[in-house]
Design goal:
Strand order of the largest sheet: 1-2
CATH topology of the largest domain: Pemi-like Protein 1, Chain: D
Order of helices and strands: HEEHH
CATH class of the largest domain: Mainly Beta
Number of strands: 2
Helix content: 40-55%
Strand content: 5-15%
Number of domains: 2
Number of helices: 3
CATH architecture of the largest domain: Ribbon
Structural class: mainly alpha
Radius of gyration: 23 Å
Distance between the termini: 20 Å
Largest sheet: 2 strands, antiparallel
Length: 138
């Protein structure tokens, strides 16, 4: 994750840092989607490259076909109101974050195991192995 400080200019305009524009693959004139979410930490802002699909194009037809297939196969949900939808999306996001944290912990454990094996091989062969970078060490 990277963080950049930007200034809000007249008429509520922001200048997107070039590093961010490059990572998003956008250039002047590109459409961006700005998503606001409120959680325990306050308001979170997410910026995504927007893709507009025009009606009648092949891309729109493919999207409609995928949607129809999802409906036929029961891959959809209904909600009584927007609050129910928001709660579902928050739960889904929280579940995915928990899964990612577990995967990260598993990978850190694997890295520690690999470093242990490398040090052991280094001791046997006389080759020294540098310590694991701090972000992987527990």
């Amino acid at each position: 994750m990277s963080s950049h400080l930007v200034r809000l200019r007249e008429r509520n305009q922001l200048t997107l840092p070039s590093e961010i524009a490059d990572r998003l693959g956008v250039e002047p004139g590109s459409l961006l989607e700005l998503i606001l979410d409120t959680d325990d930490e306050g308001i979170q802002v997410e910026l995504r490259r927007a893709e507009v699909v025009r009606a009648g194009t092949r891309a729109a037809q493919r999207s409609e076909q995928r949607a129809r297939k999802d409906i036929r196969e029961g891959r959809f949900s209904t909600y009584a109101n927007t609050e129910e939808l928001a709660a579902h999306m928050k739960q889904k996001r929280d579940d995915e974050a928990k899964e990612l944290r577990a995967r990260i912990e598993e990978m850190q454990a694997q890295m520690q195991g690999l470093m242990f094996d490398m040090r052991r091989m280094g001791a046997a062969t006389g080759v020294t192995v540098n310590e694991m970078p701090g972000k992987y060490a527990k």
